[in-house]
Automatic annotation (TrEMBL):
Record-given protein name: DNA polymerase III subunit delta
InterPro entries for this protein: P-loop_NTPase (IPR027417)
Organism: Ligilactobacillus salivarius
Length: 116
């Protein structure tokens, strides 16, 4: 059975829950680590914590419509960019740049997840 991100990265999920709860997130974070350490899962978990309708102390419920939309890459205020082939392409960077200049669709926040 696959371990949840809170089981795989307990220190980081507790740390980010505290930052979300205290409204102390900064504008950007770089999540780095070996393959399989849960970087993308953690990034999505943070996004869920930001947008969750039923967050408890900064911890997302993982069940509400916002959490489900983020999990399914279907939230308009969470932009995910993944390599197209071996790398991120120029067109993807142009798209990111255009999105940086836009405000959130459903809130005043936006989250960008860029996968290596």
């Amino acid at each position: 059975m696959k371990m949840s991100i809170t089981e795989r990265q307990p220190f980081l999920t507790k740390h980010f829950a505290k930052l979300i709860r205290e409204n102390k997130l900064v504008h950007a974070y770089l999540l780095s680590g070996a393959e399989g350490t849960g970087k993308i899962e953690l990034a999505k978990w943070i996004a869920k914590g930001i947008f969750c309708l039923n967050s408890q102390n900064g911890v997302p419920c993982l069940k509400c419509s916002e959490c489900n939309r983020i999990e399914n890459n279907n939230h308009p205020d969470v932009v995910t960019i993944m390599p197209d082939g071996l790398s991120i392409k120029v067109e993807q960077i142009r798209y990111l740049k255009s999105e940086f200049n836009k405000s959130g669709v459903e809130s005043d926040r936006k989250v960008f997840i860029i996968q290596d």
